[in-house]
Amino acid sequence: MKKESLIKIPNEISKDVIDFCNDICPGSQPLFVKVEKAEKSETLNCFVNVRKYAKKHSGHMQHGWSIYEIPGKILEAEFHCVYKSTKGDLIDISPNLLKKDKVLFLPDKKIVYEGYQIDNIRKALDGDPLIKELITISEKVFKKLSKDGLRFQYGAVSANPELIELMQEKFRIIKKLEDELLDN
Questions:
Q1: CA 96 – CA 48 distance, rounded (Å)
Q2: Partner of 108 for a Cys bridge, out of 7, 25, 129, 184, CB 3.0 to 4.6 A?
């Protein structure tokens, strides 16, 4: 039987989520945004998807952050973009890896996509040493991607042995977390 993913889209906007979002973008409120995949939109390519869609449908790009969690353990914000209609409605036209019909989105008017990846923002919710390891290794992976010039690429990238080793370490930590949390 296949285990479900540890990583979730929060079911509710809790105090932890509100505090996390206020740290990222004071004054902005997180909201649930419906996912309606647009024709030809690709996973992990929201900025290109939304730019093309907005041009065709007379809307705008709304930059911000998708919020994810491992419940009770960690919150994570991923730089993201959704479509904003001329009526002001937000729609996520890019499919997500979790294959969910909604995302928790934090609009952020201060950040704009400039052609390169931005590291996720993470916050541990408890003192679990595995979560601290996960945050540390995730930051190392991003720094290595940046150092190797791969932060301008999306989707699959060519990895050198050092990056492969870091990714294997990250997957080892995630596997330990899965064993600890999903088997209980």
A1: 14
A2: 25
Average pLDDT, the chain: 90
The Cα–Cα gap between 4 and 140 comes to 26
Query: What 3-state DSSP class applies to 169?
Result: helix
Report yes or no on 130 lying in a domain: yes
Four-CA torsion 37, 34, 32, 62, nearest 10 degrees: 60
Nearest residue to 131 (alpha-carbon basis) of 80, 90, 176: 176
72 phi and psi, to 5 degrees?
80, -5
Q: Which of 118, 138, 26 is nearest to 74 (CA)?
A: 138
Report yes or no on 20 lying in a domain. Answer: yes
Q: Is the predicted pLDDT of residue 157 greater than 90, yes or no? A: no
Are 75 and 69 a contacting pair, CB within 8 Å? yes
Q: Does residue 59 register a pLDDT over 80? A: yes
- Residue 45 and residue 93 in one domain: yes
- The verdict on residue 6 lying in a domain is no
| Residue 163 and residue 100 share a domain | no
Q: Could you tell me which of 120, 117, 93, 73 has the C-alpha nearest to residue 33? A: 93
Question: Are residues 56 and 76 located together in one domain of the fold?
Answer: yes
Please give the pLDDT value at position 23: 98
For residue 113, the enclosing domain spans: 15-122
- Let me know whether 104 and 176 are in one domain: no
Q: What is the pLDDT of residues 77-92, one digit of tens each?
A: 999 999 999 999 999 9
